[in-house]
Design a protein that fits this description.
- By secondary structure, the protein is an alpha+beta fold.
- The protein folds into five domains: 4-103, Rossmann fold; 132-201, Dna Ligase, domain 1 (2-Layer Sandwich); 207-450, D-amino Acid Aminotransferase, Chain A, domain 1 (2-Layer Sandwich); 457-477 and 489-575, 2-Layer Sandwich (Glycoprotein, Type 4 Pilin); 592-658, RNA polymerase II/Efflux pump adaptor protein, barrel-sandwich hybrid domain (OB fold (Dihydrolipoamide Acetyltransferase, E2P), Beta Barrel), CATH 2.40.50.
- 27% of the residues lie in helices and 33% in strands.
- It is built from 18 helices and 39 strands.
- It has an eight-stranded antiparallel β-sheet, sandwiched between helices.
- The chain is globular and about 80 Å long.
- Acetyl-CoA carboxylase is a heterohexamer of biotin carboxyl carrier protein, biotin carboxylase and the two subunits of carboxyl transferase in a 2:2 complex.
- Pfam families: Biotin_carb_C, Biotin_carb_N, Biotin_lipoyl, BT_MCC_alpha, CPSase_L_D2.
- Its cofactor is biotin.
Length: 664
């Protein structure tokens, strides 16, 4: 077995690989960018090498530098993880040329599956069912238009060299085709250096079911059950599970055997995933093959009891597969939720910030957390916004869902926006519990997935007041005379009672509270209502009783910003301090950057007349493009940035003089 390997990756997957390598007695070399100098994967590794500036193009994508470090450190093999260079044919070839084992398939297999159009031709020959569409070499707009008409609508444009939802657009009619094609080509060129497209019929109610396959160097292959990854946003997976609910054993077997045929058709070695679209009539069609370890591999590990990274290392060393197909068994049900730094209320825009507060559920045989961050780390614009993967297992799907709901309630983050509240609503939604799964699940159930807060506003304000006041108490210096009334921390006044004012801002609204503090409780006045409150704060845990109702919550108060966590829900407010001279960052008719990122394209000029909904600026952040659109009809009066500029969240991008009839 290898004695030392290098991991050409970062974040949670690097940490995940290190854990298995160390368990197997293998030393690990890490690489890191300037942004990751203090990252968790660097601390966990046996040694680490600086590889370049923060942008991945100048660090984690520098294949020649990684090869140089591997040789310098004496690493016998390189594990690419997922993303970055994991499916880069040239990198795999460089490893082979330098006598370094690439812990993945041979470069020829990556090349065969790297082109979606070529992959479909291979699959067709191997007898793997395909979705109707076009995957030819002629990429002229005229040909693509003609093939689109032939395929029929709705259709899906996909980058030939793509993955992760990038370079992908759903087109509903020919009127949308040209704009969608241009945008998909541009995104594909930026992400993969290849703008070529393929066209597929877009199934309206499909499920995304994928098979985990493994092949050794002797050509033997097995499949390790299937995963359902139907719940997606922007074609990127949000919640995955194994096994896929509702599949017959005959379908499982047919799909698994088709996946192994697909792998063996390209002389595959190692871990791979064959993705299928599963239709309502029980038919399934090959979608693509990912020639690497998948993000969602832990759910397969939880139901099979196997360590897939260990399998990768053994197969790369030359060992036979650890199990024959007949020996592969599954037990129970597992789910994985991807915890992202993003704002679900703003169409899942990526978010950046500091993880000033991070509390995760306790890990056990039922709960697992795969992460690459710790409290105090920054989520930057340079890499994927995934914070962690939360994985749960139990005997049945219903029990596993309950585990997930509970675990999400115990996952608390402040300092950066996350999708935890959304995930909680998703996992607890009745249609999800009933396995009514399609790739359009999120769009179909938006009302359920974006629910109103569980906390009554008044009750939340009272809890916030209790948290603020109890924390102030814990930090104040106590008088040396315990009997002195002047040492009391309750706003004591001689011969009178004093209700101290407390202003809490929620969104744009400021709430005026008054708090009368006694020795053992508070009276909190909110509007015309009075609440009797007893509260006890232990670090971040508040135990409270409001008018006889006992409630326990967690919270984080930092620089007057308070976040409360309650049953998967959150309540945010600010301890308000009136400020003067505040000016609006952007005047009426201006457009501000919704996140940190780079300007990819400016699609208007000063003086242009624009209409509501017209795309004006294209921004790129977290490897995804976002269109900034005109809020109303008007005329462009100023443009503040150019293509290629980096901008910060809130920066004014463009100013529009709004037509008066529109503004009115």
């Amino acid at each position: 077995m290898f004695s030392k390997i290098l991991i050409a990756n970062r974040g949670e997957i690097a940490c995940r690989i290190i854990q298995t390598a160390h368990r197997m007695g293998i030393r690990v070399v890490a690489v890191y960018s300037e942004a990751d100098a203090n990252a968790r994967h660097v601390a966990m590794a046996d040694e680490a090498f600086h590889i370049g500036p923060a942008p991945s193009s100048e660090s984690y994508l520098r294949a020649e530098k990684i090869i140089e470090i591997a040789k310098k450190s004496g690493a016998q093999a390189i594990h690419p993880g997922y993303g970055f260079l994991s499916e880069n044919t040239g990198f795999a070839e460089s490893c082979e040329a330098n006598n370094i084992v690439f812990i993945g398939p041979p470069s020829s297999a990556i090349a065969a599956m790297g082109s979606k159009s070529a992959a479909k031709a291979i699959m067709e020959k191997a007898g793997v069912p395909l979705v109707p569409g076009y995957h030819g070499d002629d990429q002229s707009v005229e040909t693509l238009r003609a093939e689109a008409e032939k395929c029929g609508f709705p259709l899906l444009l996909k980058a030939v060299a793509g993955g992760g939802g990038k370079g992908m657009r759903v087109v509903n009619n020919m009127g949308e085709f040209d704009d969608a094609l241009a945008a998909a080509k541009r995104e594909a060129q930026n992400a993969f250096g290849n703008p070529d497209m393929l066209i597929e019929r877009y199934l309206t109610q499909p499920r995304h079911v994928e098979i985990q396959v493994f092949c050794d160097q002797d050509g033997k292959g097995v499949y390790l059950a299937e995963r359902d990854c139907s719940v997606q946003r922007r074609h990127q997976k949000v919640l995955e599970e194994a096994p896929a609910p509702g599949l017959s054993e005959e379908t499982r077997k047919a799909m698994g055997e088709a996946a192994v045929r697909a792998a063996q058709a390209i002389n595959y070695v190692g871990a791979g995933t064959v993705e299928f679209l599963y239709d309502v009539d029980g038919s399934f069609f090959f979608m693509e093959m990912n020639t690497r370890l998948q993000v969602e591999h832990p759910v397969t590990e939880m139901v099979t009891g196997q360590d897939l990274v260990e399998w990768q290392l053994k197969v790369a060393w030359g060992d036979a597969l650890p199990l024959e197909q007949s020996q592969v068994k599954t037990r129970g049900h597992a789910l994985e939720a991807r915890i992202y730094a993003e704002d679900p209320d703003q169409d899942f825009l990526p978010a950046t910030g500091n993880l000033r507060y991070l509390s995760t559920p306790d890990e056990s045989a039922h709960v697992r957390v795969d992460t690459g961050v710790t409290e105090g780390d920054d989520i930057s614009i340079h890499y994927d916004p995934m914070i962690a993967k939360l994985i749960v297992w139990d005997e049945t799907r219903d029990q596993a869902i309950n585990r997930m709901v509970q675990a999400l309630e115990h996952y608390r983050i402040a300092g950066v926006k996350t999708n935890i509240r959304f995930l909680h609503a998703l996992a607890d939604a009745q249609p999800f519990r009933e396995a009514e799964l399609t790739t359009g699940f999120i769009d179909d159930h938006r009302e359920l997935l974006f629910p109103k807060s569980k906390l009554d506003t008044h009750k939340a304000l009272v809890l916030a007041a209790g948290f603020v006041l109890e924390q102030r108490k814990s930090r104040e210096v106590v008088s040396t005379d315990p009997w002195s009334p002047f040492g009391r921390q309750n706003s004591w006044r001689m011969n009178s009672e004093f209700a101290q004012p407390l202003q809490l801002q929620v969104g744009e609204e400021i709430h005026d509270l008054k708090v009368l503090e006694r020795d053992d409780r508070y009276q909190v006045f909110v509007g015309d209502s009075v609440y009797n409150l007893t509260a006890r704060l232990d670090d971040d845990y508040l135990q409270a009783v409001i008018n006889g109702h006992r409630i326990s919550i967690h919270g984080n108060l930092h620089n007057d910003q308070l976040m409360l966590f309650y049953e998967g829900d959150t309540f945010n407010c600010t301890v308000y301090k009136e400020s003067y001279g505040f000016e609006e960052m952007a005047s009426e008719g201006s457009l501000a950057a919704p996140m940190n990122g780079a300007i990819v394209a400016v699609q208007a000029k000063v003086g242009d007349k624009v209409t509501a909904g017209q795309s004006l600026v294209i921004m790129e952040a977290m490897k995804m493009e976002h269109a900034i659109k005109a809020p109303a009809d008007g005329v462009v009066t100023e443009i503040f940035f150019a293509e290629g500029d980096q901008v910060s969240e809130g920066a004014e991008l463009i100013a529009i003089e709004v037509n008066e009839e529109e503004a009115g």
